[in-house]
Write a structure and sequence with these properties.
Elements: E1 12-15, E2 18-21, E3 25-26, H1 42-54, E4 59-61, H2 70-79, E5 87-92, H3 108-122, E6 127-133, H4 146-157, E7 161-167, H5 171-180, E8 185-187, H6 198-207, E9 210-211, H7 226-234, H8 239-250, H9 263-273, H10 279-286
Parallel strand pairs: 3-4, 4-5, 5-6, 6-7, 7-8, 8-9
Antiparallel strand pairs: 1-2
């Protein structure tokens, strides 16, 4: 059984009443190509998840749409019964089609089905954190989230969800959600080169709400920057390590969920995120996304 470790880069953060390591793990890459179907190497995927727990990581991010259901079932196989310190965040609001697309699924019946399916595939009676995924594969889209978010609030009142968050959301949608019920996190695309949420991150930090960047390393188009490469070379580190370290130093409310299907990359990510960047290096990197 894993116990909570504060030796991971960044220490810990509290999501509502749940303490998690700021360095977490995103399970998306454990599914097959295009986040569809089973992993190429099932045993390796299970080994990565067990190493996540052994490293003391207590925040795992998943979604029923990954696979679909593949990453949830792998998490259950690898780690159930779960350590008390381990907290799993999932997302609802999108499904998959036969072409590998991510069509929205935010009608009340879609969301209820998704929550129950997540409970079943993860082997849980209550989900620690459910993010409502908004927008589409191209990014956030304006519009009210009241109906779908209120459906999740209703499921929370029924005792099926502990905490709520929003994902792929505009600042206006974050504000609207907070008028309906408390949220503990916002999960949006953000990295060194993609800085649209700078102001939102600072506002959330003041309110004690976590910000969880997805694609912290650029996603399907990895970060490319001469400034990043220069700083990395000077520190004898990989560009990805520097990008993760920058995120942890950017704001105390940022939680990392980098994904990988490789044990080697997992350990490299953890070690790299522990880099300490100087004020000069931070200033140099800060120019990339400005």
């Amino acid at each position: 059984m894993s116990t909570l470790s504060t030796s991971l880069p960044g220490g810990t953060w509290t999501l509502g009443d749940l303490t998690v390591t700021r360095f977490g793990y995103g399970a998306m890459q454990l599914a097959g190509p295009g986040v569809m179907g089973p992993p190429a190497d099932h045993d390796s995927a299970v080994a990565v998840l067990r190493e996540v727990a052994d490293l003391g990581i207590t925040h795992i991010d998943t979604a029923g749409a990954y696979g679909p259901r593949v990453t949830n079932l792998l998490i259950r196989e690898a780690l159930h019964p779960y350590a008390e310190s381990l907290h799993i965040a999932t997302k609802v609001g999108a499904t998959r089609d036969e072409h590998g697309g991510w069509p929205p699924a935010r009608q009340p019946e879609d969301l209820r089905r998704a929550v129950h399916e997540n409970l079943e595939t993860l082997g849980l009676d209550v989900l620690d954190l459910v993010n409502l995924r908004l927008g589409d594969a191209q990014g956030p889209r304006p519009g009210s989230l009241a109906e779908p978010f209120e459906t999740l609030v209703e499921l929370q009142r029924q005792g099926l969800i502990r905490h709520l968050g929003v994902s792929n959301a505009t600042a206006e949608q974050v504000a609207e959600a907070r008028t309906i019920a408390p949220i503990v996190c916002v999960q949006n695309m953000y990295n060194l080169a993609y800085r649209q949420d700078d102001e939102l991150i600072d506002e959330l930090a003041e309110e004690g709400i976590a910000y969880v960047p997805f694609f912290p390393l650029g996603g399907f188009s990895p970060l490319q920057s001469s400034a990043l490469s220069t700083v990395a070379a000077r520190l004898d580190a990989t560009p990805m390590s520097v990008a993760l370290a920058w995120l942890l130093q950017r704001s105390p409310n940022i939680l990392l969920i980098p994904g990988t299907s490789s044990l080697t990359h997992l350990r490299e990510n953890v070690a790299g995120a522990g880099l300490s960047l100087s004020d000069e290096e931070l200033a140099e990197l800060d120019k990339i996304g400005r």
